[in-house]
Design goal:
Number of strands: 2
Strand content: 5-15%
Number of helices: 3
Keywords: Nucleus, Transcription, Transcription regulation
Order of helices and strands: HEEHH
Distance between the termini: 67 Å
Largest sheet: 2 strands, antiparallel
Radius of gyration: 22 Å
Subcellular location: Nucleus
Protein name: YEATS domain-containing protein
Structural class: alpha+beta
Main location: nucleus
Pfam families: YEATS
């Protein structure tokens, strides 16, 4: 059964949009493996939670289930070739999704507050570590 499931749910997408449209019900984890065109970069795997049912009122079922998550890939010290390709990427706008009205509307102002909060939290943690190190040195004297 496991081999059948791996075959049945194996999809390969090489062109955007990287979107899977399936019909079903339930919740499960999906392993996504991302391969890069630049062969110097190793493929990465992420686990994405798929939710095909809604928490809303059964009498008021929306036309689609939206379960968005944010994944971020950070490239540390990319190769010069990759970096140049990345800067030259095509930033062409694509047409809105047919269910766009149901997607989460992000408040980027709130996001900037969150980033500032995390930065301040990091600074406070660093200050606490510095003070603890100083206290340790003073207690040894």
């Amino acid at each position: 059964m496991k081999k059948y499931m791996q075959y049945f749910f194996s999809f390969l997408y090489t062109q955007p949009p990287y979107e899977v449209n399936e019909i079903g019900w339930g919740e499960f984890y999906l392993q996504v493996k991302i391969h890069f065109v630049d062969l110097t970069l190793s493929p990465i795997s992420i686990v994405h939670f798929v939710k095909l049912n809604t928490d809303s009122d059964p009498n008021n079922i929306p036309p689609c289930v939206v379960n968005e998550t944010y994944e971020e890939i950070i490239f540390k010290n990319p190769t010069v070739h990759f970096y140049n390709k990345f800067l030259q990427c095509n930033n062409t706008k694509i047409a809105p999704h047919k269910f766009q009205e149901h997607f989460i509307k992000y408040d980027f102002k709130e996001d900037s507050y969150t980033k500032k909060y995390l930065q301040f939290q990091s600074e406070v943690q660093q200050e606490i570590c510095d003070l603890m190190s100083e206290a340790t040195l003073l207690s040894k004297d």
